[in-house]
């Protein structure tokens, strides 16, 4: 059966139609909404018009870095040192809007702010923080976070990269893989095994023995940069070691900051896909009318909306917990596992509503689908987050 009534002209705009059913905007404070609207405007004006070409051409638009710094988005959740000191919810809302344009640009903000800058803010000396964080917040210095290695990223305790003390210096040797921004970064936060356990180091990318090579052949994150890093006896002074980073607590703490941004960000990609599918369901006519009048199509749209709404509310709930200081790390795994999985499902359903046109760059859906598969892997795979949740439930670690 189908409805025979014509579509309501009041919902012909997919953005307005979606907002009429659910909009997270009304749940935000005025300050949070101000950050959100600034990010939405930046995404729509500076990223969306060029992202399809950039994705196709594997082009990273470096000129946007300074503009992102000028907006205050870089390290915005850090207090002091030239950073905005914004709330966790404000940062999450910014991540959602940027990823609605493309995952690669939310990833840039995440690598710069949640990983590299957070490592310095949490574990650096006052001199390191005063020297680097203001310049990184302005986008004048770009950082990367070198943890994952070629053999895998899920077991950082087994990393092979080493740092050996030599007088007042450290000599770092090893390899890292899938390191975002490494070839355009000015500094790398490198994690390495020492005789006293895992430690973090600020390594200038101009250091002799440091080589970053962009990974080619990617079918996702094509408007972003991920690299292989070789460290062949790269030498840094003791002053470049992060003095408060002791053991794996250091990198894990930073990873949780990045995972938090993903919880919000992927809902932006999901919203973009849902808007595209909703708009097409009203415009595309078959069998004498728009496909949106068919029950099967409405079932798909309703299911997508439910999962988007639940994911956005979960992100907001986790953000409120983070701002209150009550967030358990296992809850971050709940958010990352659920929201990435559901964003991928929403993108797939949107593609089916778009039909054959859904695989073209006329619509953003296939680009989001490809990017989301990459997001699914980095900052913890589905399997790892499942086991984190399982450990929280049972008290038994099943990682080995």
Number of DSSP helical runs = 11
- Number of discrete domains: 3
User: How would a textbook summarize the main sheet?
Assistant: 4 strands, antiparallel
Q: How far apart are the termini?
A: 52 Å
Strand order of the largest sheet: 4-5-9-8
Specify the CATH homologous superfamily of the largest domain.
Answer: Butyryl-CoA Dehydrogenase, subunit A, domain 3
Overall pLDDT, averaged? 94
Q: What does the overall shape look like? A: globular
Residues in β-strands, percent: 15-25%
Cofactor: FAD
Domain Acyl-CoA dehydrogenase/oxidase N-terminal: 29-140
Enzyme class: oxidoreductase
GO biological process, one term: fatty acid beta-oxidation using acyl-CoA dehydrogenase
Describe this structure in words.
This protein has 400 residues and is an alpha+beta fold. The protein has 3 domains: 22-137, Acyl-CoA dehydrogenase/oxidase, N-terminal domain (Butyryl-Coa Dehydrogenase, subunit A, domain 1); 143-246, Beta Barrel (Butyryl-CoA Dehydrogenase, subunit A, domain 2); 250-394, Butyryl-CoA Dehydrogenase, subunit A, domain 3 (Up-down Bundle). The protein contains 11 helices and 11 strands. The protein has a 4-stranded antiparallel β-sheet, covered by helices on one side. A 3-stranded mixed β-sheet has the order 3-6-7. Helix 1 packs across helix 7 (249-283) and helix 4 packs antiparallel against helix 5 (103-123). Mean pLDDT is 94; it is low at 1-10.
